[in-house]
Structures
1.
Amino acid sequence: MTAPLVEAVIDLGALDKNITHLRRTVAPAELMVVVKADAYGHGRVPVARQAVASGIRSIGALDLDTALELRASGIGDDVTVLSWLYPPGQDFTEAIRARVDLGVSSLAELTEVTDASRRLAGAEGFVPPRLHLKLDTGLHRNGATAADWPALVTAAVAAERDGLVRTFAAWTHIAEASEDEDTRALQRFLDGVAVARELGASIDVRHLAASSAGLRREDVRLDLVRMGGHCWGIPSFDGVTPSEIGLIPVMTLRAQVLAVRELGDEHAEAFVSAGYGDGVPRNVAGTCSVAVRGVQHPITRVERDHLVIAVMPGTELAQGDPAVLFGTGAEGEQTVRQWGDRSGTLGDEITTRIAARVPRRYLEA
Ligand SMILES: *Cc1c(COP(=O)(O)O)cnc(C)c1O
């Protein structure tokens, strides 16, 4: 079998190890694996399946199409699948049938949910959808403001009395930018939970933290921590390597040397079979490198279908040599976190933007 020109190798064994490590770290809080944006380019269905095999019982989907796709792919309703971002006028009928947990931020969304519940309520097998009522604690992304919160909770409690919903969870999203701001957000959230419970909501589960705060701070873990980045082995705070926080990068981007051109004076450049059409950011030129046979060669140009590296003096490259753009570091390559740092973005962004045309090859756990 010939190696593809470019491929993203997804190590499900590394994913399993990361998940196991993160679950132990956040316990007794539960770990939710967030697979939005196609699991940041790693592939939502294979990642979700591995997560479930690794013991995960909560998956964050962001949108309803992803949530329904996960259900259709065989993620059963012993696993919570949460969605929370909808266009106005969303029809929740399918979501309720598929037992998707629903993040709800406003009275308008709650009404859309209860309208669908009312239509389904008489039908056989109807189970009231579990709501995750979202409070805004300063990020202003979505979520009810503190002023709107009591009205949202009161309406949800009334719908629960009518058998239309369950007031299962309360949640928010914290900025993870400064410790003080996160501490204030935590306090605003706990105040909001107290208000909700006084108003009659059950709130069995409280969650607010993602990768960064969830790994660093015990006090923000509460009942559940939602993580994307750390599951794929991409540190989401500064100054640490993946291994220093017990993580293994899951994606390795591989290509091959297409041609070598001698430039005289013992200088040479080589063409490598991945370009910006594959999602390689153009500004890795001058900042990042590609490893070939254990040696890092600086990237000098990124074109659409290939990139160019300056061959390190004293090394010989040949057509067909395997080239590793980023990965775990085991073959001398940089990690995607290093690529992000050096090129002024996030490792998360780089894996997420690896193009759909790049085949994903899964290494089973
Ligand atoms: C993306 C997202 C997460 C996961 O964020 P990471 O920093 O990748 O762990 C958690 N919660 C919500 C609401 C998100 O949108």
2.
Amino acid sequence: MLPFYIFTLLYFAHVQQPTAAQITAPWEVNALRAIRGSLSDPNGFLNSWNRGDPCVANWTRVICYNVTAKDDGYFHVQELQLLRLGLSGTLAPELGQLSRMKIMDFMWNKITGSIPKEVGNITSLELLLVNGNQLTGSLPEEIGFLPNLNRIQIDQNNISGPIPKSFANLNKTKHFHMNNNSLSGQIPPELSRLPSLVHMLLDNNNLSGYLPPELAQLPKLLIIQLDNNNFSGSSIPPSYGNITTLLKLSLRNCSLEGPAPDVSGIPQLGYLDVSWNQLTGPIPSGQLASNITTIDFSHNRLNGSIPASFSGLPNLQRLSLDNNNLDGSVPSDVWRNIDFSGNRSLILDFQNNALTNLSNPLTPPANVTIMLSGNPVCQSQNQLNIAQYCQSAPEVNPGGGSIDNSTLCAPCATDLPLESVLKAPNPCSCGVPLYVDYRLKSPGFWDFVPYEAQFQEYLSSGLFLNSYQLEVTTFMWEEGPRLKMTLKLFPNNTILFNSGEVQRLRYMFTGWLIADSDIFGPYELINFDPGWYEKGSTKKSLSTGAIVGIVIAAFAAAAVLSSLITLILLRRRSRQFSKKRTAKRIPMKIDGVKDFTFEELSNCTNDFSLSRLAPLPDTEGSAPGHVSTVVKGTPGYLDPEYFLTHKLTDKSDVYSLGVVFLELLTGMQPISHGKNLVREVVAANQSGMILSVVDLRMGALPGECVERFAALGLRCCRDETDARPSMAEVVRELEAIWQMTPDTDGVPSESVAMDPTHTPASSSTATGSRMGHDQYDMSTSDVSGSNLLSGVVPSINPR
Ligand SMILES: *[C@@H]1O[C@H](CO)[C@@H](O)[C@H](O)[C@H]1NC(C)=O
Ligand SMILES: *[C@@H]1O[C@H](CO)[C@@H](O)[C@H](O)[C@H]1NC(C)=O
Ligand SMILES: *[C@@H]1O[C@H](CO)[C@@H](O)[C@H](O)[C@H]1NC(C)=O
Ligand SMILES: *[C@@H]1O[C@H](CO)[C@@H](O)[C@H](O)[C@H]1NC(C)=O
Ligand SMILES: *[C@@H]1O[C@H](CO)[C@@H](O)[C@H](O)[C@H]1NC(C)=O
Ligand SMILES: *[C@@H]1O[C@H](CO)[C@@H](O)[C@H](O)[C@H]1NC(C)=O
Ligand SMILES: *[C@@H]1O[C@H](CO)[C@@H](O)[C@H](O)[C@H]1NC(C)=O
Ligand SMILES: *[C@@H]1O[C@H](CO)[C@@H](O)[C@H](O)[C@H]1NC(C)=O
Ligand SMILES: *[C@@H]1O[C@H](CO)[C@@H](O)[C@H](O)[C@H]1NC(C)=O
Ligand SMILES: *[C@@H]1O[C@H](CO)[C@@H](O)[C@H](O)[C@H]1NC(C)=O
Ligand SMILES: *[C@@H]1O[C@H](CO)[C@@H](O)[C@H](O)[C@H]1NC(C)=O
Ligand SMILES: *[C@@H]1O[C@H](CO)[C@@H](O)[C@H](O)[C@H]1NC(C)=O
């Protein structure tokens, strides 16, 4: 099969001869090998880390700078994105050699051992992400000298020992996420020097000592979350009431003593939790910020009366004062400024106090829950209508939720994992979603329901998507409280995301490029699951590389019919190879299809890619005048991804390709039809008779497939260049169309229309002819793209 052969030869000629200069820095290669060596990778995700060069051959989840460094001429590792790969083992000290790395992501694996101090040598490091492992040991003080560190996420490990004082040097660090470890000792007062810190999440550790009043000097602090530590003997520093930037103060179960904090001077405070301590004295009566949603003073030893300042807070969702010694009367108008439309509700928990009377009769709106059991007021017989509030109430938790999509829309077609886009402007349209497991680490509210629409707006716009493209499929509260969600992201008005968009969205999440929101707080990425885009598309369809190859081949040779047959063959073969890799050789000579000389090829290809190719003198076995080529261009340019993004974007090239498609569709002789053919097909299409011009040989394919193929050809042939799809879109659509072709597993490939005189057996003996070059052992061109891209060079076996 000439065209595909050309491509294959081109591509692998390139891969086999990389230019010596364009390689990854050798010490970084060694470091990656060492990192791989000290990890255990039961699922083999890192198998590609044995092959070729990390940056040139595209090792899995190793992201390199896209250009070589000016100072040393090497490629360098920019990111390790090893999120959720089931890795165990330890982190190799050689990590420190990746000194230009910006993102080190080992989140949600089962890695043990400690964080190597050599990480302190990665001076360009911006995101240090190792949360959700089983790391132990203490925090190396070397990390404190990383000048570019923006975010340190070590949460959900079992890291012990103190927070090093050296962390006070992290001038650029905004996020300390260290919750759920075994950190001990005092919070170093030196941390008050951190000029950029916004989120300090140290909850669920074993921190002790006094709470440093100095933290009030942090100029940008938004969240202090220290729940479940043990600061016994310490009180809440009054200076915390002076942190005017603060949005959330959470000090639950910290063994704190002394008076309740006066936070009335914090203008935007939205969330205050000082429950489960031993606070004494009265609750300060200053007016709290109107932003406040959650006030929790429960389980302390507070006395005095309930301040009138709790009444009239317009955003309040929960006021928990239970299990104290509060006396006086039950406030009767806490809800007076709350607008209960839009699913709002309010919980007032005053249980187990010493409240003795009502100031006024209680006549709350339906969405207010008042809990009074365990107060003397419940015993007094003369209080009307109070009994309903005096039943001992179970703990009230905010609800979760999920979208029931079952009845809203008719099911989508099942040939792709399509799902209904429930909020699409075109209702019930279908798309293949990306799935994201996502968790709000420190939300600024108690009940999510009233904020759901706002969240949708926040996250979709943060991702530069239309709001309808994001669906919060389920949400549920977890300990913390944290809010876990599953999200679906849908493509905009199309069935599929293109690969660039998938990558962009992944990067928005894994690079923490979505701006934080005051009300929703920091997020955790638990999983980014491309679903079909990663697994399905490579298993079930041709790889990008193969398709690009085919498109190029089709384009270069315009040997139209044979291309389609090749595609179908490849597809069938690919399905078979996944089962058995001992494929037979396939005869590729196709009856009635013209062979092309190099001149014909270059004439008909608009100088497309062949301009970079040089015809060689005939190589062994090829007939005179036929094409054998090697790559003359710069290394890298035949990289399939590069083609997709750079080379194949010229929409005027797309026109010629569209003509080829239409020729294929109609079964006309290749080349030379140009606009007449296009006009003919357009006319047939407009009169709804598209099938009337379709070649009978296409009849084996499903009608929808043929129609989409026709539509694609026509779009490519639009007069206005801008109306034509990009080459990347063409490739995607081709891929989608091949997906729709019937699964022909088990059908002998010989049944495809091709030269009936060549059986596999007889063709395999052919040698020395041009025919021989048209054939190669398909079993080596596995379709799982990763092989094409990872530097394993399938051998071409001309016969
Ligand atoms: C390389 O990456 C930088 C950003 O890191 C980007 O601005 C630039 O366009 C990229 N260059 C190429 C050739 O992709
Ligand atoms: C960090 O690099 C310096 C040299 O750049 C070297 O002297 C030092 O030993 C390295 N430290 C670690 C912990 O690898
Ligand atoms: C975490 O480490 C501490 C000691 O550092 C140990 O007491 C504790 O059992 C460990 N917890 C887990 C869950 O492994
Ligand atoms: C951090 O900033 C302070 C004040 O700007 C400066 O004195 C200090 O040297 C900086 N520290 C580092 C490690 O850059
Ligand atoms: C953090 O630790 C607390 C207390 O052990 C536990 O209840 C909570 O589930 C943990 N949270 C996470 C996210 O691991
Ligand atoms: C917590 O810290 C205290 C000292 O403050 C220590 O005695 C205790 O063993 C630590 N507990 C754990 C589980 O690390
Ligand atoms: C809070 O700030 C004011 C003015 O900035 C200052 O007078 C007061 O002493 C501070 N209070 C505390 C407890 O630090
Ligand atoms: C609020 O009250 C209305 C009317 O009783 C009810 O339909 C709605 O479910 C309530 N909402 C919440 C969140 O409790
Ligand atoms: C509804 O959602 C489920 C789970 O996310 C999915 O499997 C199903 O295909 C969806 N149904 C429709 C009609 O989109
Ligand atoms: C979605 O597609 C429409 C056209 O179909 C376009 O106008 C709009 O800008 C796109 N929106 C986004 C966020 O890409
Ligand atoms: C706080 O309230 C102001 C208006 O008073 C509003 O602009 C801001 O968004 C609110 N912040 C939060 C976190 O709700
Ligand atoms: C690298 O390979 C992966 C799959 O192995 C693929 O998803 C990705 O697009 C490739 N990247 C480049 C730049 O070739």
3.
Amino acid sequence: MILNQAGTRRFRAYTSKHLDELLQRAGLGDEERLRVRAVATVLPFRTNAYVVEELIDWSAAPDDPIYRLVFPQADMLPETDVARLADLLKAEAPNAEIQVEANRVRARLNPHPAGQKELNVPRIGDEPVPGLQHKYPETVLFFPKQGQTCHAYCTYCFRWAQFVGDADLKFASDDIDQMVGYIRRHPEVTSVLITGGDAMIMGEPVIRRYIEPLLGLEQLESVRIGTKALAYWPQRFTTDPDADSTLELFEQVVAAGKNLAFMAHFTHPRELDSPLVESAVRRILDSGATIRTQAPLIRSINDDPAVWSGMWRRQLRMGMIPYYMFVERDTGPQDYFAVPLARAYEIFRDAYASVSGLCRTVRGPSMSATPGKVCVDGVTEIAGEQVFMLHFIQARDPSLVGRPFFAKYDPTAAWLSDLRPAFADRFPFEAAVEDSLLLV
Ligand SMILES: *Cc1c(COP(=O)(O)O)cnc(C)c1O
């Protein structure tokens, strides 16, 4: 029986093998469980005892937001696809046959949005540097090979394609010298973001191998760690065998004169309730690191201003700094989770208006799109026309940062590519990027 483990045991993942048993606990009938398992042949599923026992409110499942955060839903994919896969599962078809069908469905889900694979891979001379993304001058993202999984998967994950089928881990690297060499050649880089997957899935000796060589790079101001471990496995910083040595590594980064910026993904205030999270946060802050928080806005999970303001307030009390509210990306089951931009802006504004200035470090709603991070600043009327006001928080072309631009109001638009320019025949980023053939 997998369901009775205390949250404080050693980490063990629950995978699709355990799915049926867990779905029974949510009270789903035979047909419904089959349909959910059909979805799980396409999209990744993974959770663990802490999420199952400490975070999910099973009396409210399957409507519970944390349940919806980790468990696939039968209607996340087109009905015809789900029916075809469910038939194959029911007939106990060979796995290879199921995979062929699942791959076909995945290919239709825009698995690599925002030009991730082609546009952001840097080069040394003519050599591509795999596992590195360099989109904005100051920051490089590094995807360590051993960091390409998570303690649990979010149903809305925009990197879902990394975790399923014949996942193409050319995206990831274990070539530390190459990463360091690249940064040395690019003095404009002041920040390295180690991400995945989840950087904190790596044990301390492994993550140390990636971080220590960065400490001698004078140009670096910050080392960032992208992670949802505080929400999904806070034991990583309290009782796990390498908790103490991990915090010592953080101290070492701070002692080297750099900001260890712990970029924590929190989706819902419930994730902050456990006393384990409180002590994990305390220990991370005691190392001298800072914690900044971010999450996407997701329909049926956190699309409510009170959820966001509650989350930011709790984070502030605990010493964390609200950073980004993201718009769900145009990949995977986006139709299922998307909140229209007009509604996203209202949710952000209502939440933002109800918290103290100390929480207003947060920016959003922000779309991480091909030309950069686009913030929806509002909906207003100019010269009789209803428009979205937008600006770039970050841009591939830094000259665009901080300059307002406008799009025609559309109550159903849910992504940058749904928008049309207002008062102009093209968006500023379209003009700025035409030479490099970038299209949104
Ligand atoms: C958000 C992001 C960054 C970091 O941007 P900041 O505004 O410095 O937080 C870097 N690279 C990519 C691809 C990003 O999406």
